[in-house]
Amino acid sequence: METLGFLMEGFAVALTPYNLMFALFGAFVGTLIGCLPGLGPANGVAILIPLAFTLGLPPETAMILLTAVYAGAMYGGRISSILLNIPGDEPAMMTCLDGYPMAQKGRAADALAISAVASFAGGLIGTIGLIMLAPILAKFALTFGPAEYFALFLLAFATLGGITGKNPMKTVIAATIGIMISTVGIDISTGTQRYTFGVLELYEGIDFILAIVGLFAISELLFFVESRVGGGREKINVGKLTLSFKELVSTIPTQLRGGVLGFIAGVLPGAGASLGSFISYTLEKQVLGKKGKFGEGDIRGVVAPEAGNNGASSGALVPMLTLGVPGSGTTAVLLAMLISLNITPGPLMFTQNADIVWGVIAALLIGNVMLLLLNIPLVGFFVKLLSVPPMYLLPIVTMVAFVGIYSISHSTFDLYFMVAFGIAGYFLRKLEIPLVPIILGLLLGPEMEKNLGHALILSDGSWGILWGSPLAVGLWVVAGLGLVLPYVVGPLLRRRMNAAMKESPVSD
Amino acid sequence: MTGFGDRILGLGLLVLAVAYGWAAQQWPEPFGGAEGVGPETFPTILAFVLVIGSLYLMVKPDPDAQWPVRKTALELVTSVVVLIVYALLMEPLGFIISTTLAVGTLSWRMGARPRMAFITGLISAVVVFVLFNYGLDLSLPAGLLEVE
């Protein structure tokens, strides 16, 4: 039980008071980010990166902080789903279906409590899955050569849009733009200046942190300005907790099913948390059939998607940690943190930076317990936050983004750059060009080029090496499928998801 | 006409792709002769991919999004100007004053009452300034308020 030993070491890292404090802080801020209007998880984590930097946190602490934020955001997303019928983030969409009817029946407190428990169960199952699967995958990934890595990166881009994505071509375009931006600066292998136009600030390339913060935070502000929903929402009364122990026990099978399904969806490329919660919900509906009152406030209709999306969020860490290839926006932002800490993600990380990897995994377990403990007593506090008007909140968030970027380099040049990225982000979002592939392109571009170079040196310049091994061919095929499937299966799946939303009598 | 936005974007990206690809061909050959992969290889591939993508956008554009007009567009431009001016004034005026102005203006334009907006701006500015300068030991510019 080598893994168990590593995990114990991880706990030794995560349980130091210093790291525990940051995990708690992260869990709290994460829940805040999840439930505040206009702050998605990817956005929230992105804003925290420069802060984690300027605080001079040691790498494992920084990663623990951000992972806790990530887990917390998944908890927070459900609060507005249940109370307002507005999902806090995309994966929380399915929670609306039964959560909101429960709230209307006066059982909001029960729905919030049971969903916290379900989130905990999902997160726990996902993390256990991560502990079992990650080391195996990391060992397997050690057999990858540069050609396989190149194909793997392509696969990551191809599947990023997800099976339910609308227009895969736009994902391709976005990824290409991201990689192009990453080529600005001095070429590492030859020293050629590329696209620097003689501007000194561009020699070192464009810092992806400011690109990420600009693309997410500034464009979000502009979207809010445009939609003119600055006013807050009314205060909501949660009511008393009437959940019985028996009821809680009766949902355990649902929690297990949801968590496992979610985890699998999280690990697979192209599925992700939204699909995880969707599958969990639909399966639960089919298993229980007529015994349940799905869509009218069935408690299991809240449990299944919550367990699913938290399972998926842990599952999504598997490819990020073992292969260095994230499958979602938020994990991409976590990858950005790792790269800027000078840690090369991928299989080697499990041997070279074992303390960080296992510290993060242990922190995820501890974080889940903390989140459960935080969420039940503090739910009233988080509910109050829902009524914070975005007109005050978003300008302050923008200011924090400015402070973060400024404190990295103390140069206003970076601030202009960030604003420019924000404007670009606004237009791209308007044109439905997804932002996540751009960010992934920025992060993975240099690695991709490096692996291409290595592969061609190994083969003496023959391009055939890129599809020279069965494994590489397999990756190419999956990448191809990732681009073609959305055209075939996508419309069907999207229709079913929409149909499920419409079936519920209150989702108007 | 539908799909106008995507067509313009496609055209813009096509120009970008061609310029990007062309620029890559202009770099001098690196010292030591050409190997399998030079500095221009990868950008050239990217340029090709983007050319194909942008042509696709122009041929098969998605339906247009709702673009903001007049007043909303003006608000958007205002917000962007505020952000740029904020970056511009941060060092000369100092963090507290520039932040009060920037956050205040943004909140006000998003619908808050002016008084409340600027008070929010001031409070958030002071809190962040104190937190960063004294709590975390990171210096933000004090600007005009600097005490010698």
Automatic annotation (TrEMBL), chain B:
Transmembrane feature ranges: 42-59, 118-136
Keywords tagged on the record: Membrane, Transmembrane, Transmembrane helix
Pfam families: TctB
InterPro entries assigned to the protein according to its UniProt record, in alphabetical order: DUF1468
Domain DUF1468: residue ranges: 8-141
Keyword Transmembrane helix tagged: yes
Name assigned to this protein: Tricarboxylic transport membrane protein
Organism: Marinobacter similis
Species classification: Bacteria, Pseudomonadati, Pseudomonadota, Gammaproteobacteria, Pseudomonadales
